[in-house]
Amino acid sequence: MQGLMDEVQQHVLRIQVRLFACRERLLAGTDDEALHDLRIALRQLRSLLRPLSSVAACADLQQRAAELGRLTGPLRDLEVLQGHLLQQGLDSAAQSRQPLLLQGYSRLLGSAPLAQLLHALDIWPQEWRDAASNGQLSDLQKLIRQRLRKDRKRLAQALLDPAHDRHRLRLLVKRLRYASEAYPQLAKMSGHTRMQLKQAQSTLGDWHDHWQWLLRAEAETDLQPCVPAWREAMQSAEQQADLALQALTAGFARTQ
Q1: Cα-atom radius of gyration of the chain, to the nearest Å?
Q2: How far is CA 240 from CA 23, 79, 119, in A?
Q3: Distances in whole angstroms, Cα of residue 40 to Cα of each of 18, 36, 71
Q4: What domain range includes position 57?
Q5: Do residues 178 and 118 share a domain?
Q6: How far apart are the C-alpha atoms of 97 and 244, rounded to whole Å?
Q7: Is the predicted pLDDT of residue 256 greater than 60, yes or no?
Q8: Are residues 37 and 118 in the same domain?
Q9: 165: Cβ–Cβ under 8 A, 6 or more apart, which residues?
Q10: Are residues 30 and 112 both part of a single domain?
Q11: In terms of Cα–Cα distance, which of 217, 240, 212 is closest to 228?
Q12: Do 134 and 153 fall within a single domain?
């Protein structure tokens, strides 16, 4: 048990270092991947802590990470859209969104959720040690295994629902994938299943991007020329996502 407790603490520390580095990269303003990497680190932190939500220190830190994740989501969506517009040679549409991006970065760097998360990470190691000394971590492996089983069951049930919601499936796929990566020894998931989860997440993400862009185009008229191509791309992404989800469903059925 002590080994797992130490592993969790070391993992949180590594993520903390990455988050500080991402903040510095955003401050420098010269790194197009800084926000993306920050969100990956947040996702990994949340995945690591979610099975431990019954431990007060972990629940608080996970909530802080979730708040920052919600704050950065729309900004990352705008960043992805601008990159796509540049790739398509739509320089005017891309450049018109640059001020919004810069304002978003500035608000993020000065935001309460970012400051609160970084502070919470500073004090968390002592809270983790206190939780251990108070006996709150005695069933650590059990807590994690229960959560992993629950995440897998929820996804398996959603995959079998003929009226499944792609938005919810995308969330459940991401949740199980990152949880299994946070605790590979306890997840006991095959490399093939992990690959299927990654593929499903990728195709659902592609579909989700185009779905969002089409919604934006209803209000942002300079995006209207992109609509026909985006509709076609979204339909293709839907088909690819359905194939990936079918493969994942079959894989789950074989391992039940």
Answers
A1: 20
A2: 35, 24, 42
A3: 10, 6, 14
A4: 1-138
A5: no
A6: 33
A7: no
A8: yes
A9: 158
A10: yes
A11: 217
A12: no
Assess whether 29 and 115 both reside in one domain: yes
- Rounded Cα distance, 157 and 180, in Å: 18
Is there a single domain that holds both residue 37 and residue 113?
yes
Q: Provide, rounded to the nearest whole percent, the portion of the chain with pLDDT above 70.
A: 98
What's the average model confidence in pLDDT over 20-26?
Answer: 96
Q: What is the count of structural domains for the chain?
A: 2
How many helices (H) does the chain have, and how many strands (E)?
A: 11, 0
- C-alpha torsion sign, points 103, 22, 151, 199: positive
User: Residue 189 in contact with residue 168, Cβ under 8 Å?
Assistant: no
Which token pair is 176? 């199980």
Helix axes 2-28, 98-109, angle to 10 degrees: 130
Question: Of 117, 138, 159, which residue sits at a domain end?
Answer: 138
The CATH number covering residue 69 comes to 1.20.120
Of the residues 83, 118, 138, which one is the last residue of a structural domain? 138
Rounded to whole angstroms, how far apart are CA atoms 26 and 44? 19
Contact 147, 50 (CB under 8 A): yes
Are residues 204 and 169 in contact, defined by beta-carbon separation less than 8 angstroms?
A: yes
pLDDT at 255: 62
Tell me the CA distances in angstroms from 171 to 29, 121, 177, one per residue in order: 30, 25, 10
Contact 254, 217 (CB under 8 A): no
* C-alpha span between 55 and 44 (Å, rounded): 18
With tokens 């949180």, the residue in question is 12
- Cβ atoms 245, 200 nearer than 8 A: yes
Task: Report yes or no: 105 and 76 within 8 Å, Cβ to Cβ.
Answer: no
What is the rounded distance in angstroms from the CA atom of residue 66 to the CA atom of residue 175?
A: 13
pTM: 0.91
